[in-house]
Specification:
Chain A: Its EC number is 1.5.3.1. The complex is a heterodimer of chains A (180) and B (92). By secondary structure, chain A is an alpha+beta fold. Chain A has 2 domains: 83 residues, Gyrase A, domain 2 (2-Layer Sandwich), CATH 3.30.1360.120; 67 residues, 2-Layer Sandwich (Alpha-Beta Plaits), CATH 3.30.70. Chain A contains 4 helices and 9 strands, in the order E-E-H-E-E-H-E-E-H-E-E-E-H. Chain A has a 5-stranded antiparallel β-sheet with strand order 1-6-9-8-7. Chain A has a 4-stranded antiparallel β-sheet with strand order 3-4-2-5, covered by helices on one side. Chain A is globular, with a radius of gyration of 17 Å. Chain B has 92 residues and is an alpha+beta fold. Helices cover 17% and strands 36% of the residues of chain B. The chains are: A alpha+beta (180), B alpha+beta (92).
Amino acid sequence: MRDYPLENRSAFSPDVAVGTGAAINLAPVPGGFVIHVLGDAKSDEAALKQVLAKIAPELGADVRKSAPNQWFWVGDAAVYSDRLTELQAGLVNQFALADQTHGRVRMRLSGASSRTVLAKGTMVDLSADLFAIGQSAMTQIGHIGAMITRIEDDSFELIVLRSFAASLWDELHHMAAEFR
Amino acid sequence: MSSLVKCPHCGLRPREEFTIRGEVATPRPSAGADEATWFDHVYLRDNPRGEHREYWHHSSGCRRWLVLTRNTLTHETSDVVDASTLKTEGAQ
């Protein structure tokens, strides 16, 4: 029971300036949910996707591996605490959910130069043959811990702790300055 | 260029993503062991020339504890495994 449920509010103001250039764009992903899924030692991704598709087909089963037996389950719909309780009840004992929507912020870096910009901050090889669409990596951008997921050929989604979101946002703007 | 460490879960990652804890100590002595044995276990560290086993934490990646075999002479890391494998090793 939660006496003081947290209010899920976007970390960004609604009028945040979003670039429109073709070379590079940085935009917040407003709304949605980020749920940390913790599996037991024998859990695997295929089983998780299957069970999520069964209990919550409307939320999609976009899971991004963050560690062995751990994932971030991400989607664009709003998930309220009652629904979360329902979801946890519907899951087999193998998986536990921890809502991170209030604590982790999503932003999207896109455009022809997006890979070059990210390469300034992370040492993960983002070339298409090693880091395909849908693949994720938990890493650092500069000194800020973040998860990078390739959404399209030249579009990446970043998940960062809310308290670091402004720093990362500023840093990415500096890194992208030469392409604007 | 920073040194790269091959995390068994994440692949090649820069050293900066890790926190280094130090050598993998010998098994804990029994509670009744004499003072010299305990002193050795708690305070004395080897400083080997060559292969050395260390605990590394992938703090900015998968957040797993790893055991890394590093050559202190060449900085080559010959083997990196998840620290949970030590449990099975100890059971042998």
